[in-house]
Amino acid sequence: MDPGFLLVQSLSGLASASSLFVIASGLTLVFGVTRIVNFAHGSFYMLGAYIAVTVVPWLLELDRSPWLFFAGVLLSALAVGLLGVAMELLLLRRIYKVPELFQLLATFGVVLMVQDAVLWIWGPVDITGPRAPGLRHGVEILDQRFPAYELFLIFVGPAVLGLLWLLMHRTRFGILIRAATRDREMVGALGVNQALLFTATLFLGAFLAGLGGALQIPRVSASAQMDLSIITEVFVVTVIGGMGSVTGAFLAALLIGQLQAFGVLIFPKITLVLVFVLMAAVLVVKPWGLLGRPEPAAGRAALPEGILHPRRFGVVEGTIAMLAVATAFVLPLFADAYTLKVATEVLVLALAAFSLNFLVGNGGIVSFGHAAYFGLGAYAAGLLVTRLGVPMEPALVAAPLAGAFFAALFGFFVVRLSGIYLAMLTLAFAQIAYAVCFQWVEVTGGDNGVVGVWPSPWAASRQVYFYVVAVCAVAGIAAMRHVIYAPFGATLRAARDSEVRADAIGVDVRTHRWLGFTLAGAAAGLAGGLYAFSKGSMDPTLLGIPTSVDFLAMILLGGIQTVMGPVIGAAAFHSIKDVFMPLTDYWRFFLGASIIALVLIFPRGLGGAYGKLRGSRPVQHA
Amino acid sequence: MTLLRVEGLSKRFGGVVAARDVSFDLGPGEMLAIIGPNGAGKSTTFNMVGGQLRPDSGRVVLEGAEITGRPPRAVCRLGVGRTFQVAQTFLSMSVAQNVQMALIARAGRTRDLFAQADALYRDGALALLDRVGMRSEADRPIGELAYGDVKRVELAVALAASPRLLLMDEPTAGMAPRERAGLMQLTASIARERSIGVLFTEHDMDAVFAHADRILVLVRGEIIAAGTPEEVRADEQVKRVYLGTTGHRAALRARKATHG
Question: Which of A125, A503, A567, B161 is exposed most, by the fewest CB atoms within 10 A?
Answer without folding.
Answer: A125
